[in-house]
Amino acid sequence: MRRLRTVVVAAAVAVTLAGCPAPPSRPRAGSAPVDPTALPTRPAPSPPPALDGRSTPVADPVYPDYGNPAIDVLRYQLDLTWDPAARMLTGSATLTLRPVRPLAEIALDFAAGYTVDRATVDGTAAPAGRAGGDLVLRPARPLVMDQPVTAVVAYHGRPSPAAFPGNRADVPAVGMTVTNDGALWTMQEPYGAFTWYPCSDQPSDEALYDFAVTVPAGWSGVANGAPAPPVDAGGGRRTFRWHAAEPIATYLVTLSVDRFERLDDVGPHGLPVTYWVRPADADRMLPTLRQTPAMLTWLEARLGRYPFSTAGIVIVPGDSGMETQTMVTLGAISGPDAVPVVLHELAHHWFGDAVTPRTWRDVWLNEGFATYLQLMYTVDRLGGNGEATLRNWRTQDAGLRRQYGPPGNYRPDAFAARNVYLGPALMLHELRGVLGDPAFFAMLHDWAQHHVNTQQDRESFTTWLDAYTGRKLSPIVDKWLDSPTTP
Ligand SMILES: [Zn+2]
After folding, report:
1. Residue 19 has what pLDDT?
2. What pLDDT, on a 0 to 100 scale, did the predictor assign at position 26?
3. CA 134 to ligand 1 center in whole angstroms
4. Ligand 1 centre and the CA of 368: distance in Å?
5. What pLDDT, on a 0 to 100 scale, did the predictor assign at position 27?
6. Is the dihedral of CA 135, 141, 147, 151 positive or negative?
7. Which of 78, 128, 227, 316 is the most buried (most CB within 10 A)?
8. Is 275 left (phi over 0), alpha (psi -120 to 50) or beta?
9. Who contacts 21 (Cβ-Cβ below 8 Å, separation ≥6)?
10. Per-residue b/e over 306-333, b at no fewer than 16 CB within 10 Å?
């Protein structure tokens, strides 16, 4: 996630250090790999995980009310119909889920405002009730550990978003927002998918997705993955189908319905890219959107291959940007902030989307890396002053730690405050100084590429970092994440 309308990278007429080869202890903020193939990267020691949606869910230490570690959802099939005039969402959610232990009931995060019309487990009616914030299905027979079942929940209701557990002006709420003209869009970090479909709303449980979104003619439904051509659904409606071949955490799922225009582009290696823009936004947004292939190429030169089979951006009437997997959800902004924000969200596709934090304790694994890449791009391509920005971040960091807690143990009511962006980015800059550019960029590349489609945390990162570099670097990580004052 990235706030809009806040310039974090100081602009400058000249990049002060351009042309000066920096000693290892004082790295520049930008650039480095001109030839990524010359980096001392290594092959992944183990094969990538099977793309079957299987994960090892855990309870979230920061937001324990969300997610259910007793189940592992393998796949969601969401068949949704949106009636813009009535503001009515009618849905059928089919969850293929693996009981992690023997279970008598299935508890799912789902907003209480919806009417459940029918619920089944393996084709047999399953009474649905509420307990706490959860929808609870009671299957006719107890569920056997590791034997997947199919749960179907049919529902309808008028969506409304939920409170955001923080105080960011650009994120007034999480989940599904319906606009005055009947459009809808979603941003749902750290949770909020539950405002429009029943789910286990916690990042350790990634799953595969198929969407079928039925909307009136003239409207489009946009979600994650690869789009199929819309088909006639009768009654003056069309159905948009999307298939996500790689597992997604619920906070990285997106759905937007609006009168979009679709524009196609091509990224590196022939990567299919689509932009979804309301005609009124097109002239303003397209100059930024059309830079996506070049940004992906710049990122690939540092981080290795883009980890998914499609990319895209959907423009929504919000004030923030979100790295929703394969389809960035972006507020309708233009001007100098727009390109750095898109770069930040695309960088998250390596750091956050492909390598996902197991719990919200480690949101720094997302924001530290994306913020550092954003700084580098701004220095390299947009005339940003890296030294001034890093000094500015250090100055801010002290107050942010006091106000919101250290980045590795932030206040739960201050989710995604700037403390989890700036300190962890400064930590990466210190690691760069210690390792030198070739080893640092090989490390960035291999952390992402060796862990694609997995969930990670601080312990797994520091263990890997020390083993990978052959040095004891975990104290650097720990001090930046835990110290009440700026290291
Ligand atoms: Zn971010």
Report:
1. 31
2. 60
3. 29
4. 8
5. 66
6. negative
7. 316
8. beta
9. none
10. bbbebbbbbbbbbbbbbbbbbbbbbbbb
Judge whether 238 and 217 are in contact, CB under 8 Å: yes
Residue 21 has pLDDT above 70, yes or no: no
Strand partners for 430: none
Instruction: Output the CA 1–ligand 1 centroid distance in Å.
Output: 3
Given a cut of 50, whether residue 422 has pLDDT beyond it is yes
Tell me which of 132-146, 327-341, 425-439, 456-470 is least confident: 327-341
Give me the pLDDT at residue 8, please: 44
H-type helices in 405-457, by residue range? 419-435, 437-449
Residue 3: what pLDDT?
Answer: 58
Q: How far is the CA of 137 from the centre of ligand 1 (A)?
A: 35
- pLDDT: which is higher, 275 or 1: 275
Neighbours of ion ligand 1 (CB under 5 A): 1-2, 367, 370
Sorted by where each starts, the structural domains of the chain and their CATH numbers stand as: 1-7+16-38+266-487 (1.10.390.10), 50-259 (2.60.40.1730)
Q: Which amino acid is at 145?
A: M
Residue 6 has pLDDT above 50, yes or no: no
345 CA distance to ligand 1 centroid (A)?
A: 6
Which residues touch 141 (CB under 8 Å, ≥6 apart)? none
Task: Give the ranges where 42-157 is alpha helix by DSSP (H).
Answer: none
Cα(338)–Cα(136) distance, rounded to whole angstroms?
Answer: 42
Tell me the backbone φ, ψ of residue 248, rounded to 5 degrees. -130, 140
Contact in structure between 76 and 242 (CB atoms under 8 Å): no
| Cβ atoms within 10 Å of 285's Cβ, excluding its own | 21
**431 Cβ neighbours under 8 A, 6+ residues apart:** 440, 443, 473, 476, 477
CB 469 within 8 A of CB 443: yes
Which tokens in the block code for residue 23? 């000693």
Q: DSSP H helical segments within 214-331, as ranges?
A: 279-289, 292-303
**pLDDT for 47:** 86
Q: Which of 314, 317, 364, 369 is nearest to 342 (CA)?
A: 314
Over the stretch 191-221, which tens digit does the pLDDT of each residue have?
Answer: 999 999 999 999 999 999 999 999 999 999 9
User: CA 69, CA 71: separation in Å to the nearest integer?
Assistant: 5
Is residue 25 over pLDDT 70?
A: no
Cα–ligand 1 centroid distance for 347 (angstroms): 8
| Highest mean pLDDT of the ranges 27-41, 252-266, 322-336 | 252-266
Where do we find the tokens 């994306």?
A: 370
φ, ψ for residue 106 (rounded to 5)?
Answer: -120, 115
> Is the per-residue pLDDT at 4 higher than 80?
no
9: tokens are 């990278």
